[in-house]
């Protein structure tokens, strides 16, 4: 890939800025999504600039093909990551073409990444238990806030409710409803959904709110009413959440674990337990059922057991 210090021509930079304003205001996309689009487009425009392209009208389909090929060959990107870049490029040029900024759309000839998905990795039930139990009280009480309660509450909620990393860091106290045992979550596209919290997660969350969060708060109100706070009393950042999960995963002897893996584990274990796919779609906040269907990769032994238990002919055979 071209060096990051290559200067992006003003026309290309302005085109990117206008597009990002559009998806922020008109499409209501989340900050994490906006950041992702911004990074992908910056890489594209830096690559184009390094080859002497200074305007959108000068971009050809071959330019885009070469860029995607470099992501794979020089950056060793996974297919799913290249697919995300391709999706960003298609939306970017489609919008500029629809608004008359370019006469032709060079991304039209690019195939959509419909088959570039990889099955999500998930943890076993025992691995999840080891991870959640990794945060534990210190051997001696030095009077500092019991951060282990915060960390265990985070891990419990990630697995109990299948929340995204961004969702769990933006939950406010007003969103938690102890009476019904649920939390109001704002997901992608600012869409809200009510997600149940399991009893183990509710117990540790309540303990954290009583024993730890008050000690993390500052009188200046920097917590913004968020549930999960950093040691400085500010809302916990998404990057810090990843670090917390990785820290306790390492302590539990687990490698390459990230917050989204707990979401994958939640979804897979729910399906294995017999959850309806439509219900799971609502819990995860997926706009399209096809996104949820990727979790139907449950193990074959479970499918065989379900078939044997519920198929009419199998029931007759066992009765005989």
Walkthrough of the structure:
The longest helix is centred in the N-terminal third of the chain and has 20 residues, at 31-50. This protein folds into two domains: 10-98, DNA polymerase, domain 1 (Orthogonal Bundle); 125-303, Intergrase catalytic core (hpI Integrase, Chain A), CATH 1.10.443.10. Strands 1-2-3 form a three-stranded antiparallel beta sheet. Helix 3 (61-73) runs antiparallel to helix 4 and helix 6 packs across helix 11. It has 320 residues and is mainly alpha-helical. It has helices at residues 10-25, 31-50, 61-73, 79-98, 125-132, 147-161, 165-170, 199-211, 213-216, 238-251, 259-272, 277-284, 289-292, 300-310, 312-319, and strands at 176-177, 182-186, 192-196.
How are the elements arranged and paired?
Elements: H1 10-25, H2 31-50, H3 61-73, H4 79-98, H5 125-132, H6 147-161, H7 165-170, E1 176-177, E2 182-186, E3 192-196, H8 199-211, H9 213-216, H10 238-251, H11 259-272, H12 277-284, H13 289-292, H14 300-310, H15 312-319
Antiparallel strand pairs: 1-2, 2-3
Helix pairs in contact: 1-2, 2-4, 3-4, 6-8, 6-11
């Amino acid at each position: 890939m071209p060096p990051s210090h290559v200067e992006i021509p003003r026309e290309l930079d302005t085109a990117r800025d206008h597009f990002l304003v559009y998806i922020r205001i008109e499409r209501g996309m989340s900050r994490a999504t906006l950041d992702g689009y911004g990074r992908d487009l910056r890489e594209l425009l830096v690559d184009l600039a390094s080859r002497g392209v200074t305007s959108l009208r000068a971009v050809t389909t071959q330019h885009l093909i070469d860029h995607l090929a470099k992501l794979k060959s020089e950056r060793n990107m996974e297919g799913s990551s290249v697919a995300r870049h391709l999706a960003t490029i298609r939306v970017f040029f489609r919008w500029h073409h629809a608004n008359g900024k370019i006469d032709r759309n060079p991304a039209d000839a690019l195939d959509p990444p419909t088959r570039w998905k990889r099955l999500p990795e998930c943890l076993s039930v025992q691995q999840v238990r080891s991870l959640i139990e990794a945060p534990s009280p210190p051997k001696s009480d030095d009077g500092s806030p019991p951060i282990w309660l915060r960390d265990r509450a985070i891990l419990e909620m990630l697995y109990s409710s299948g929340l995204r990393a961004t969702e769990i860091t933006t939950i406010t106290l007003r969103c938690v409803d102890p009476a019904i045992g649920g939390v109001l979550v704002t997901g992608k596209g600012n869409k809200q959904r009510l997600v149940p919290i399991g009893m183990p997660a509710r117990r540790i969350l309540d303990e954290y709110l009583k024993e730890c969060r008050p000690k993390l708060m500052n009188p200046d109100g920097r917590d913004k009413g968020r549930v999960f706070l950093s040691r400085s009393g500010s809302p916990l950042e998404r990057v810090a959440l990843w670090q917390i999960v990785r820290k306790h995963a390492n302590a539990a002897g687990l490698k390459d674990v990230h917050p989204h893996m707990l979401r994958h584990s939640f979804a897979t274990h729910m399906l294995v337990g017999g959850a309806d796919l439509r219900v799971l779609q609502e819990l995860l906040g997926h706009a399209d059922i096809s996104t949820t269907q990727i979790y139907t990769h449950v193990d074959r032994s479970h499918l065989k057991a379900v078939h044997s238990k519920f198929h009419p002919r199998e029931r007759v055979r066992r009765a005989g």
